[in-house]
């Protein structure tokens, strides 16, 4: 299959001739037809972190490059099995569930992404990705924390860490500590006592939101009202169909994010992680299993968003702190590297393979895939799309990569 | 002329710091006692409040803040918990600290240790070995009341702190500035009172301050003993010299006094008030206990600006509720819930510790607090006699009085009285109120 | 004369339990679980039950119950124990039903519904007791008792939860209106029997739908417990041991029996499906033997084809555990110098496997605060000459791996050692002792060791245990294990000794988790230990019969003094 399909709805939008025609359609119909851009105030960025350093060369495979096969006699993905995207790029076979997204033009691959001076330390590299800064020592605020500060005033849950109790550095610095949610129970109100649960919740709500308060108590009462709203919306979805997500950390986390989106609690940014990508030895089977898990979870997420009607406003960004060395090592694995492909999925995404093909020439063991695109350019695009001024988040100006549209 | 100036020199700041006197400033009754106990011990039983009223403001502060050896039942408890203290398990260590806070008849030492733990925020997530963190907090508990310099010196040599801020990477020919920066920015002076050169030179002074196998080890070969200039001091400075130089600066006293004030009194101190406090703090040789005693006795502390002014952190909220209601919850489960509310003991989110105040509050933590209140409600219903002994009753009146000084709007009061006879529901309702989140 | 007649009547009653299946007729369709007690009195008087109650009473654990009983007796003039004996001394049957969707929005499906029926000796007596009980309950202000009537049968609702009705000599209890109504209908109209009851036998019998046992439905209270259960589903060890047992569909049936010195629970699991993986039921002669020593407190023996099981792990185990299993496969392969785990490593072991658990005495090693037992895998090797060295090299590499991980966490490393013991070379790894004044952490429980004696492989966590087992093998001290696919034997006395070793730790845990004072926690733990002290042995065996799996759990109790 070749790249993105021909004349898409997006192309219609861009052509200015169609704008007056759009204005004539009643708004709900137009929105339903996907012809209206989604209001930036509803757009959601889901950041999926592959922890450990994903082997990008075996994920987005330069199958036609002889250097690739020469450097990885054991680990190279055989061209016959790789899923072709373009003439020189293919996907690892385990990513098959993502092919429908590619065919639809909603999967973008950005190659050669990384910080300007790559570091092979997990900790340092993650720090750079999370704080969007190459300063040393890194600032204590994360880029998503800064985003969430800009979104302040929005009620509900603007920024969330789903799937774990740890708060990633990316979310640090928000005005209020972003919540770390593991399951739906974290956002449902239990009721104690002999009365019925609903009656008790109602009583709690009346007591907390009663008027006649001042100062901090009044502020807290408002916050409590907000919390009750969120809890109510989420409780309604408790029995709703949730789609079939794979079990495991990532599946559960994305299931929770989908639920939060469906509940309309004002979610704008969500962080999830998938662990285990630090494949120094015997990489083949383990990496394949991880990618299978990843693509199953992402595909289920996309499906659930469609079912919920949220697909038009959600973009998923999949990144890892660094790629891996071009040459495989003696233990059947790969060591820490530099440049890596970044994946973008979702309806707002302009599909295709972007960025320069990885330069694999060079014979030594230390050869890394070079970084050709500063990761902050991707952040800039995401910020623009979310409606947040880049200057408030990034340390400098970065030209956004044009991968996200309305 | 000079007489006029002299009288005008007695500024409002100093007045605010004068001790509260019942005959001049108002009665020192159960409300004032509850307020004092909330800030020093997280919460209080009826008996504890009565005692404080009896003692009066100054003697009560003296008694509450004086360290005392564990005795009687508490000593037996600590002895019985000893076998678990060596475990490398985070959940166990968190529950042990919570058990101390819940059972200690005089918990101010642990409350203050929690403050210092947030100030010198060090997380086991990077340090790895639990025992190192446990020992650090033990040191904070032991030295927390005393003068600041020995505490700071102990922290600078603490193996967990060295591991946390990459002290082992701080070498003569390749200094690592991490510790020096946090020392100046967070632990002593605060932003803007030093420049990059101070950080660089201070880092050189701490080269060779390493840890090995969980013990502090000074490595002379890695120490840069050349001339340095830090904050106005110069010479072949070593780490201790830099610490002394920090404390010599008035900004240090201001920074620390400000932090202590904002944690124990309220979040909006007048600049002149802080200035007075800072001067006194420095002149006393950074005597933390004296400063705290002055604050806790003061009119500012008992005045309207401090009453119910602070959003209670998760630990303070939970321990306060448990102590006031005579509850003894499952400490392991409690530690887990508190982590969900944003305060994981021994594992603060970063070098800045916990921001506190309104940052504790978001929809998820509010729901979490209500769910914690539900579990406390169920626990209270199981042991009604303990509840009666601690709060003086198990009805709405007693609970409102014990927890909230009976200060709630009428709408809320109506809802609570509708829960007659339902202890669990009532406890949950009272603890879920906005007022209950304020210390 | 009257007494003789009463005694005769009573004995007649006991000799002729009510017509089996009568009470069963009252239960509507759709029971998820059924529990039948032919005679409540017999169950109560069974020696093990009596002994347990006596123990608890001696230890003061029943103080509150006794106090309540005394208060009730004062209030009503009769001993409540007599009432209970009257109401529940005859035939009793319980049924559990699926919860109904709640009518209130946002509540989800309700809890499971329960119905219980008891046949009391006489209607008037039953009514009198009921009236007295309800009067006592009503007298407390916090309680709410409403009396209603259904088809002229009076019934009462207590605290909105419990429903009670009596018709004739049958007493009915339920937690759901519709269920009680259905039972009363069947009682009044005489509905035919629902399903033939299983053969009566023992003190009680029960049947369960397996879905009741699935952790998802158990809804444990705390997040931690919920997470722990969640892990177990995907846990490879649990899978290896138990997955083969749960492959069938259909009801589980069981019964409880008691003799003078033992309590036995017999379960019949539904027949396994046609295509049961052979991995769980490899062919082989029944009954094998395992070395044990003086400190052995438990032996878990299974018959499994590990190679086959590992080969099929993608279908046998959950999807979310696959990445970790893949990693484990890679690591095993690495440890064994590139051999395939399924074909070379697991296939080298026989199908008779055992895990021997020993108490550790720490005679020549530092004693940690928490004293954990040692666990040793015992297996036969097809080709010890070639596989033996491979295992020893793998052990060496394993210790190397462990040490690298420990170094990252700044923990002390393990030091490799080779020792001779009774003609066998043992390879072991011991922790270097820590500095002076450092507490002995729980890591000191671990001193991994491996030994090969003839064609026996011993791989354990405790060097002292492996030494003892080598001696046992040399001396021919083997213990036969029960035939079947899985068996477990626990020596109560030795297990108790292990717990007693850890009494202080148990007390500390009780303080933290139960919120008790040091004194009360001590008493609580001692009560627990005394109760467990009554247990001489625990035996579990799972055998495959033609059309089902038989599970037998036997608790042998301390003989009466």
Describe the model.
The complex is a heterotrimer of chains A (406), B (439) and C (561). With 406 residues, chain A is an alpha/beta fold. In chain A, 34% of the residues lie in helices and 13% in strands. Chain A is built from 13 helices and twelve strands. The two termini of chain A are 25 Å apart. Mean pLDDT of chain A is 84; it is low at 1-36. By secondary structure, chain B is mainly α. The relative contact order of chain B is 0.12. Chain B has helices at 2-8, 12-17, 22-25, 30-41, 46-65, 72-81, 90-103, 108-119, 124-127, 130-143, 148-156, 159-164, 178-188, 196-205, 239-248, 250-264, 271-283, 288-297, 299-302, 314-325, 331-340, 363-382, 384-391, 396-404, 410-417, 423-432; strands spanning 209-212, 215-218, 228-230, 233-235. Chain B starts with a helix and ends in a 7-residue tail after the last helix. Chain C is 38% helix and 26% strand. In chain C, the strands form two sheets. Chain C has a 20-stranded antiparallel beta sheet, with helices on both faces. A two-stranded antiparallel sheet of chain C has the order 11-19. Chain C folds into two domains: 2-208, no CATH class; 213-555, no CATH class. The chains are: A alpha/beta (406), B mainly alpha (439), C alpha+beta (561).
Map the helices and strands.
The complex is a heterotrimer of chains A (406), B (439) and C (561).
Chain A: H1 9-14, H2 19-24, H3 27-32, E1 44-51, H4 56-59, E2 60-61, H5 66-71, E3 83-84, E4 90-91, H6 99-104, E5 107-114, H7 122-131, H8 143-150, E6 159-162, E7 180-181, H9 197-209, H10 215-236, H11 248-262, E8 269-275, H12 283-308, E9 314-320, E10 340-345, E11 352-354, E12 373-374, H13 375-386
Helix pairs in contact in A: 11-12
Chain B: H1 2-8, H2 12-17, H3 22-25, H4 30-41, H5 46-65, H6 72-81, H7 90-103, H8 108-119, H9 124-127, H10 130-143, H11 148-156, H12 159-164, H13 178-188, H14 196-205, E1 209-212, E2 215-218, E3 228-230, E4 233-235, H15 239-248, H16 250-264, H17 271-283, H18 288-297, H19 299-302, H20 314-325, H21 331-340, H22 363-382, H23 384-391, H24 396-404, H25 410-417, H26 423-432
Antiparallel strand pairs in B: 1-2, 3-4
Chain C: H1 2-15, E1 31-37, H2 40-45, H3 47-58, H4 63-76, H5 80-88, E2 92-97, E3 113-119, H6 123-139, E4 145-150, E5 153-158, E6 162-167, E7 170-174, H7 177-189, E8 204-208, H8 215-218, H9 223-234, H10 236-242, E9 252-258, E10 262-269, E11 289-291, E12 296-303, H11 306-311, H12 313-316, H13 322-335, H14 341-345, E13 349-358, E14 374-381, H15 384-408, E15 414-421, E16 424-431, E17 449-453, E18 456-460, H16 463-475, E19 478-480, E20 486-491, H17 492-501, H18 503-514, H19 518-533, E21 535-544, E22 549-557
Antiparallel strand pairs in C: 1-2, 1-8, 2-3, 3-7, 4-5, 5-6, 6-7, 8-9, 9-10, 10-22, 11-19, 12-13, 12-20, 13-14, 14-18, 15-16, 16-17, 17-18, 20-21, 21-22
Helix pairs in contact in C: 18-19
């Amino acid at each position: 299959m070749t790249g993105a399909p021909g004349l898409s709805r997006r192309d219609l939008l861009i052509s200015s001739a169609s704008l007056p025609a759009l204005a004539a359609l009643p708004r709900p119909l137009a929105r339903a037809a996907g012809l209206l851009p989604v209001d930036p105030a509803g757009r959601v960025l889901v950041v999926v972190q592959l922890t450990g350093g994903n082997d990008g060369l075996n994920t987005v495979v330069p199958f036609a490059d002889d250097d690739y096969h020469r450097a990885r006699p054991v680990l190279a993905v055989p061209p016959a099995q790789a899923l072709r995207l373009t003439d020189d790029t293919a996907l690892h076979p385990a990513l098959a569930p993502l092919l429908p997204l590619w065919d639809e033009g909603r999967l973008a691959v950005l190659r050669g992404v990384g910080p300007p001076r790559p570091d092979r330390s997990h900790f340092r590299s993650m720090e750079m990705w999370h704080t969007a800064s190459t300063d040393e020592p890194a600032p204590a605020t994360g880029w998503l924390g800064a985003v969430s500060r800009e979104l302040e005033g929005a009620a509900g849950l603007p920024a969330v860490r789903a799937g774990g109790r740890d708060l990633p550095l990316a979310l640090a610095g928000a005005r209020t500590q972003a919540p770390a949610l593991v399951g739906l129970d974290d956002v449902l109100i239990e009721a104690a006592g002999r009365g019925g649960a609903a009656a008790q919740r109602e009583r709690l709500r009346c007591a907390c939101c009663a008027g006649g308060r001042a100062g901090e108590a009044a502020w807290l009462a408002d916050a409590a009202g907000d919390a009750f709203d969120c809890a109510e919306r989420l409780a309604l979805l408790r029995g709703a169909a949730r789609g079939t997500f794979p079990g495991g950390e990532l599946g559960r986390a994305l299931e929770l994010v989908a639920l939060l989106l469906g509940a309309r609690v004002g979610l704008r940014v969500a962080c999830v992680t998938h662990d285990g990508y630090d494949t120094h030895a015997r990489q083949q089977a383990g990496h394949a299993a991880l990618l299978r898990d990843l693509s199953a979870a992402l595909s289920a997420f996309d499906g659930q968003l469609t079912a919920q009607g949220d697909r038009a406003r959600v973009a998923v960004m999949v990144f890892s702190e660094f790629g891996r060395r071009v040459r495989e090592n003696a233990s059947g694995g790969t060591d820490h590297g530099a440049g890596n492909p970044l994946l973008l999925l979702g309806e707002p995404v302009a599909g295709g393979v972007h960025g320069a093909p990885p330069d694999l020439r060079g014979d030594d063991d230390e050869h890394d895939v070079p970084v050709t695109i500063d990761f902050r350019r991707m952040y800039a695009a995401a910020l623009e799309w979310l409606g947040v001024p880049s200057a408030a988040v990034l340390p400098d100006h970065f030209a956004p990569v044009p991968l996200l549209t309305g | 002329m000079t007489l006029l100036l002299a009288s005008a020199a007695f500024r409002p700041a100093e007045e605010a710091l004068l001790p509260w006197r019942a005959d001049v400033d108002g009665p020192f009754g159960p409300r004032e006692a509850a307020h004092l106990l909330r800030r020093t011990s997280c919460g209080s039983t009826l008996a504890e409040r009565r005692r404080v009223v009896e003692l009066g403001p100054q003697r009560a502060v003296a008694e509450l803040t004086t360290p005392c050896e564990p005795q009687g039942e508490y000593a037996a408890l600590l002895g019985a918990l000893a076998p678990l203290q060596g475990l490398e398990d985070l959940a166990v260590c968190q529950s042990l600290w919570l058990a101390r806070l819940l059972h200690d008849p005089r918990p101010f030492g642990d409350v203050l240790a929690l403050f210092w733990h947030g100030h010198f925020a060090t997380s086991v997530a990077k340090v790895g070995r639990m025992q190192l963190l446990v020992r650090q907090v033990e040191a904070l508990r032991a030295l927390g009341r005393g003068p600041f310099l020995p505490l700071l010196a102990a922290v600078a040599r603490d193996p967990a702190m060295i591991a946390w801020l990459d002290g082992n990477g701080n070498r003569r020919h390749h200094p690592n500035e991490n510790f020096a920066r946090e020392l100046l920015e967070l632990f002593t002076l605060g932003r803007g009172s030093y420049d990059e050169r101070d950080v660089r030179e201070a880092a050189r002074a701490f080269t060779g301050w390493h840890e090995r196998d969980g013990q502090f080890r000074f490595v002379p070969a890695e120490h840069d003993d050349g001339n340095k200039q830090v904050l106005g001091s110069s010479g072949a400075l070593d780490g201790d010299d830099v610490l002394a130089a920090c404390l010599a600066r008035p900004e240090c006293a201001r920074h620390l006094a400000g932090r202590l004030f904002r944690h124990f009194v309220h979040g909006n101190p007048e600049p002149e008030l802080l200035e007075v406090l800072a001067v006194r703090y420095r002149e006393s040789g950074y005597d933390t206990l004296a400063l705290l005693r002055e604050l806790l006795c003061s009119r500012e502390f008992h005045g309207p600006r401090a009453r119910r002014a602070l959003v209670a952190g998760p630990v303070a909220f939970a321990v306060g509720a448990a102590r006031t209601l005579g509850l003894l919850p499952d400490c392991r489960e409690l530690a887990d819930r508190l982590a969900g509310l944003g305060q994981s003991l021994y594992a603060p989110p970063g070098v800045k510790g916990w921001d506190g105040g309104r940052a504790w509050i978001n929809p998820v933590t509010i729901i979490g607090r209500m769910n914690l209140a539900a579990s406390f409600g169920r626990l209270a219903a199981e042991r009604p006699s303990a509840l009666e002994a601690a709060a003086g009753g198990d009805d709405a009146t007693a609970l409102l009085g014990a927890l909230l000084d009976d200060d709630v709007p009428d709408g809320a009061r109506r809802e609570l009285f509708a829960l007659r006879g339902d202890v669990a529901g009532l406890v949950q309702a009272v603890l879920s109120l906005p007022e209950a989140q304020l210390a | 004369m009257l007494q003789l007649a009463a005694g005769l009547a009573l004995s007649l009653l006991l000799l002729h339990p009510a017509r089996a299946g009568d009470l069963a007729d009252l239960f509507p369709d759709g029971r998820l679980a059924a529990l039948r007690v032919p005679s409540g009195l017999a169950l109560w008087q069974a020696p093990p039950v009596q002994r347990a109650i006596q123990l608890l009473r001696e230890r003061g654990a029943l103080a509150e119950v006794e106090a309540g009983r005394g208060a009730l007796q004062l209030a009503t003039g009769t001993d409540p124990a007599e009432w209970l004996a009257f109401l529940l001394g005859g035939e009793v049957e319980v049924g559990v039903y699926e919860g109904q969707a709640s009518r209130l929005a946002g509540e989800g499906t309700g809890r499971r519904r329960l119905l219980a029926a008891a046949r009391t000796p006489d209607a008037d007596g039953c009514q009198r007791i009921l009236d007295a009980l309800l009067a006592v309950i009503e007298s407390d202000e916090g309680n709410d008792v409403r009396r209603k009537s259904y088809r002229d049968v009076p019934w009462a609702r207590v605290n909105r939860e419990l429903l009670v009705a009596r018709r004739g000599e049958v007493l009915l209890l339920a937690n759901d209106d519709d269920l009680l109504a259905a039972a009363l209908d069947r009682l009044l109209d005489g509905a035919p029997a629902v399903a033939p009851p299983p053969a009566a036998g023992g003190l009680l019998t029960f049947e369960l739908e397996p879905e009741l046992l699935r952790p998802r439905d158990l809804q444990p209270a705390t997040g931690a417990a919920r997470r722990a259960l969640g892990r177990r589903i995907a846990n490879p060890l649990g899978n290896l041991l138990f997955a083969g047992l749960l492959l069938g569909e259909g009801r589980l049936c069981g019964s409880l029996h008691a003799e003078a010195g033992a309590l036995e629970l017999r379960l019949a699991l539904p027949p396994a499906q046609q295509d049961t993986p052979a991995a769980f039921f490899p062919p082989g002669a029944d009954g094998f033997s395992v070395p044990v020593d003086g400190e052995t407190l438990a032996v878990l023996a299974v018959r499994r084809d590990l190679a086959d099981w590992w080969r099929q792990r993608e279908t046998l185990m959950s999807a979310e555990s696959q990445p970790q299993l893949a990693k484990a496969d890679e690591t095993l392969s690495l440890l064994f110098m590139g051999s395939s785990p399924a074909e070379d490593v697991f296939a080298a072991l026989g199908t008779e496997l055992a895990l021997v658990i020993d108490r550790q005495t720490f005679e020549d090693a530092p004693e940690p605060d928490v004293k954990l037992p040692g666990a040793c895998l015992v297996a036969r090797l097809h080709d010890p000459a070639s596989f033996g060295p491979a295992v020893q090299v793998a052990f060496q590499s394993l210790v190397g791996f462990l040490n690298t991980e420990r170094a990252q966490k700044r923990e002390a490393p393990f030091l490799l050692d080779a020792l001779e013991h009774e003609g066998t070379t043992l390879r072991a790894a011991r922790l270097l002792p820590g500095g002076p004044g450092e507490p002995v952490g729980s890591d000191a429980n671990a001193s991994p060791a491996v030994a090969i004696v003839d064609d026996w492989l011993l791989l354990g966590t405790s060097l002292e245990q492996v030494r003892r087992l080598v001696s046992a093998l040399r001396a021919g001290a083997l213990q036969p294990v029960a035939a079947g696919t899985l068996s477990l034997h626990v020596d109560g006395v030795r297990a108790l000794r292990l717990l007693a070793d850890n009494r202080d730790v148990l007390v500390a845990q009780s303080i933290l988790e139960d919120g008790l004072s040091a004194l009360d926690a001590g008493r609580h733990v001692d009560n627990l230990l005394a109760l467990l002290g009554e247990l001489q042995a625990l035996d579990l065996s799972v055998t495959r019969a033609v059309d089902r799996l038989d599970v037998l759990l036997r608790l042998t109790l301390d003989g009466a003094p």
